[in-house]
Specification:
The complex is a heterodimer of chains A (349) and B (283). With 349 residues, chain A is mainly alpha-helical. Chain A has helices at residues 4-9, 19-39, 41-46, 52-55, 77-82, 90-93, 112-123, 125-132, 135-143, 149-153, 168-182, 184-190, 194-200, 209-213, 226-233, 259-295, 307-323, 330-348.
């Protein structure tokens, strides 16, 4: 304390504005650095290789495209920093790239997909082994068109997966954006199913695609298979073979279900319409009648709502009272008369 | 003669229509029905904005699921109680099963219905209605059948492992379709049309018929509502079995409050249900 005080109290340069100005300038610099660190820092921190100097430019494209439109080489630094690999070096995945400008793959014959899965495998061997058994892998090794790790997980925006602790929203978006992107019909069908409904309303425990089909194995589950029984047993420990015959992927109208299910669905849909339409009609008529009797005064209260029915009815009643039991009333006679009259006139002309 | 005197007496004489047992059962039906509808329909109409609101209000899907099962237990309870009462009534020969007084539908109900339709359109007098009208019988048996179907399919889905040990897995698909559709039908019938309007919404009882909560109604209402039963009892001299002095003012006020609270709640639940169903059609 005593050492520092005299030094800091004295102006640093003779004739300058003194300590306050120096402090002010220092503060300005500090704030600027802090701002730069906060905004750009997280992104740049990982970029010790300087890749993002060029690749953070949204307009950065491949300068020498092999064919057609130049492909974008843009990497969003913010998103990358926020991703689970945000602290990794670019070259930890992009292997075989040399840091020259313009940089190139050391072995340009190697497919980028091949490089990608090798990169994933080196850190995630267990997951990769599971993937190797899947239909996805089989398709990929056949003609390279099948999905690889990054097809589902994305590349620069890979999100952290904490098994068993994911939120319902996360599971839902993984299912929709990863599985549902290719398996559109299956996803559409599954979303009518109550596991999915519960998930979409926020029940994180509810099963979605990968809870049954496995995360990397993407098992194709057939009813009655021992494998299917095992998958069901993860949540339903008492599940037996019969349990697996429950159909999870059905159309909303059950067109593709067993005819019995479709029949029950159609029966109840018809019943619903019939009962409700009859119910509305009946209740309306019943209530207006009773309401009118109780209120006892024409044109007041509820009765007015059903005025058109009441008017009809009153006309009928009154006609009966006036004319007695005779089948023809004066209005019809009058109408007929007018018509005759007109007809007569027409005939004269 | 006697009718005139009774009418003049007003609330000093009341007609006892429902025993405490039946009122208790109606409370159970009401509680379980409201609960099941509120916790079940959001899953059916999950695309509705209001489903999420209600689910969150319940504290999540898991909590709503638990509540749904709890209300299902109440449902089973009233079903067992009513079933036992039926068995007691039939086996203990407490009364004739096929009579004018019975809840079992008969020829009279068909004639009443035709009569009512004629009356609606001014083609005849209002038929003399008995202790249970045809729409009340419809309500009762529809609920009975609905409880068997919804309850049965619900239990299957509650215990899917046990169900599929005995029955094929497709049974669960059937149960799901049945449960969902029949529940929606029941909701429509109870809330929207038949029950709320024909039992509670009629002008004599609007907005709610107190009789199911208190057990009695003013004797002049009785004579207006159930003329045939009244006539029959008058002839048979059994009117004193059901017509008694009115309970104390405090008790009457209490039943008024109960009815009022239940009515407000029922109105809210019904409005909410309608909102839930109608919302996805527009938004």
């Amino acid at each position: 304390m005593s050492d520092r005080r005299p030094g800091s109290a004295r102006p640093i340069l003779p004739g300058s504005h003194g300590r306050r100005a120096v402090l002010g300038f220092a503060a300005l610099v500090a704030v600027t650095i802090a701002l730069v660190l906060v905004v750009v820092g997280p992104a740049m921190a990982a970029d010790q290789e300087g890749c993002l100097i060029c690749h953070s430019d949204p307009n950065f494209t491949n300068p020498t495209p092999k064919e057609g439109e130049p492909t974008s080489l843009y990497v969003d630094p913010q998103k990358f920093a926020a991703s689970v690999h945000g602290k990794n070096q670019c070259s930890s995945c992009h292997r075989g790239f040399v840091n020259t400008i313009p940089q190139h793959q050391t072995d340009p014959t190697k497919d980028y997909k091949q490089i990608a899965i090798e990169a994933c495998e080196s850190c995630h061997p267990k997951e990769f082994a599971a993937y190797q058994t899947s239909t996805h892998a089989k398709l990929f090794y056949q003609d390279a068109a099948g999905p690889i790790c990054i097809s589902c997980h994305g590349s620069h925006e890979i999100r952290r997966v904490s098994l068993g602790k994911e939120t319902a929203d996360f599971k839902m978006s993984m299912a929709r954006d990863s599985c549902g992107r290719c398996h559109k019909e299956k996803f559409e069908k599954a979303s009518h199913e109550f596991h999915f409904k519960a998930l979409s309303l926020g029940l994180a425990d509810a099963a979605t695609c990968f809870d049954c089909h496995g995360f990397h194995e993407n098992l194709s589950l057939k009813s009655g298979d021992p494998q299917t029984v095992k998958q069901c047993q993860q949540c339903h420990p008492g599940a037996t073979k019969g349990f697996t015959y429950f159909q999870m992927h059905l159309k909303a109208g059950f067109e593709d279900a067993w005819w019995g299910v479709r029949a029950v669905y159609l029966f109840f849909s018809t019943l619903l319409i019939v009962v409700l339409v009859t119910g509305i009609a009946y209740t309306t008529v019943h209530l207006q009648k009773e309401t009118r009797i109780v209120l006892g005064v024409a044109g007041r209260g509820f009765g007015r709502l059903f005025g058109f029915i009441r008017a009809l009815e009153e006309e009928t009643t009154q006609r009966r009272e006036d004319e007695g039991p005779g089948p023809e009333g004066p209005p019809s006679e009058g109408g007929a008369g007018t018509r005759e009259h007109r007809n007569g006139r027409g005939g004269d002309e | 003669m006697s009718a005139g005197t009774d009418a003049k007496e007003g609330m000093r004489l009341v007609y006892h229509r429902f025993s405490p047992f039946h009122r208790f059962n109606h409370y159970l039906v009401m509680i379980s029905f409201f609960g099941l509808v509120l916790t079940g329909l959001p899953l059916k109409f999950k695309t509705s904005y209001w489903s999420q609101v209600l689910m969150d209000a319940f504290g999540g899907v898991a909590a709503a699921g638990f509540a749904h099962r709890a209300f299902a237990v109440v449902n089973i309870l009233y079903f067992i109680l009513e079933g036992s009462y039926m068995a007691y009534f039939v086996l203990g020969r407490k009364g004739p099963i096929f009579s004018d007084d019975s809840i079992v539908p008969g020829l009279k109900d068909w004639q009443d219905m035709k009569g009512m339709f004629r009356w609606f359109f001014g083609k005849g007098p209002k038929p003399l209605l008995n202790r249970f009208t045809y729409w009340e019988k419809f309500d009762y048996w529809a609920l009975f059948a609905g409880t068997v179907l919804i309850g049965g399919s619900g239990l299957m889905m509650w215990f899917p492992e046990a169900t599929t040990r005995v029955l094929p897995g497709i049974t669960l698909n059937l149960a799901l379709v049945l449960h969902s559709n029949e529940a929606f039908l029941a909701t429509g019938v109870i809330f929207i049309f038949v029950h709320f309007f024909s039992a509670h919404g009629r002008p004599e009882s609007f907005p709610a018929d107190e009789v199911i909560f208190s057990g009695y109604l003013p004797v002049e209402h009785y004579i207006h509502e159930r003329p045939l039963e009244y006539e029959n009892r008058l002839k048979a001299g059994t009117l004193d079995q059901v017509v008694r002095p009115a309970p104390s003012k405090a008790k009457r006020r209490m039943f008024g409050w109960v009815t009022g609270i239940v009515t407000v709640f029922a109105f809210l639940v019904a409005s909410y249900t309608l909102l839930l169903i109608i919302w996805p059609l527009f938004f």
